[in-house]
Amino acid sequence: MSSVTQANGEGGRPLRRDAERNRGLILDAARQVFAAQGLDAGFDEIARVAGVGVGTVYRRFPERGDLVEALFEQEIDAVVARAEQAAADPDPWRGLADFLHWGTDAQAADRGLAQVLASAGRGHERVARERDRLRPAVQALVEHAQRAGVLRPDVGELDVGMVVALIGRVGGPERADLRHRFVTLLLDGLVVRRDTPTPLTPVQTSEDDLACVFEQPRPRR
C-alpha cells in the first residue's frame, strides 16, 4: 500500500501518511496550547503536547503565521457567521445581547482566537481576509439595533469589539457567570432607555478575577 495520501501539503504537494499524521497532531496540539496560552506559546510546548520533535513542527510550519492561518481561518469565519446571524435577528436588541454574551465566552475559551481577532498583524492572507469580513458584520449588527431605536446612536462597531475583548479576559473559561454579569452592566449602558436596572448574576468579583485582566502574555520560547 502506498504511503502517499491525497491530502496536500505546502505548495500543493501530496503529504506522506506519516507527515499527514504529524500535521494533524501538531494542529490539534496548537489549538489546545494557543487556546490556553495565546499565540506567543512556544513551539516546544506545541511539540510536547503533540508528541513530536520540535523540528517536526518547524518543518510543517516554518513560520508562526503559517500555523495561525491553518488553525484560525475557519474559526474566524464562524465568528463572522455568528455576527451576521445576530444582525438578522428580528429582535435587534436580542441579537446584540446574544452576540455579546457569545463573543465574550468564545474569546475567554480561546486566547489565541481573541488575539487573532484583535490584531491586524497575525496570520497570513486568508486569515486577514476573513478577519476583514468581521468589522462590517458587526457594523450591520450595531446599525440594525440603532435603526430600531434601542441602541444609543454614538456607539460604533469598534466599541463593540473593544468591550467584547475586554470582558472576554475576565475570569477564565470557567467563569461565564462573572462575564455575563459584566455584559449585563454593559448592555444597561448601551440601551437607549430602561426603566429599572437589569438584575445581575449573583456573583462578586474577586482580586484573582481582577488580576487575570492584567495578566502579561507569556514570552515565546
TrEMBL record:
The keyword Ligase does not apply. Gene3D superfamilies: Tetracycline Repressor, domain 2 (1.10.357.10). It comes from the Bacteria. GO terms for molecular function: DNA-binding transcription factor activity; transcription cis-regulatory region binding. The keyword Transmembrane helix does not apply. Keywords: DNA-binding, Transcription, Transcription regulation. Pfam families: TetR_C_43, TetR_N. Transmembrane segments: none annotated. Residues 42-61 bind DNA. Residues 20-79 form the HTH tetR-type domain. PANTHER family: HTH-TYPE TRANSCRIPTIONAL REGULATOR BETI, HTH-TYPE TRANSCRIPTIONAL REGULATOR RUTR. This is Transcriptional regulator, TetR family. It comes from Klenkia marina.
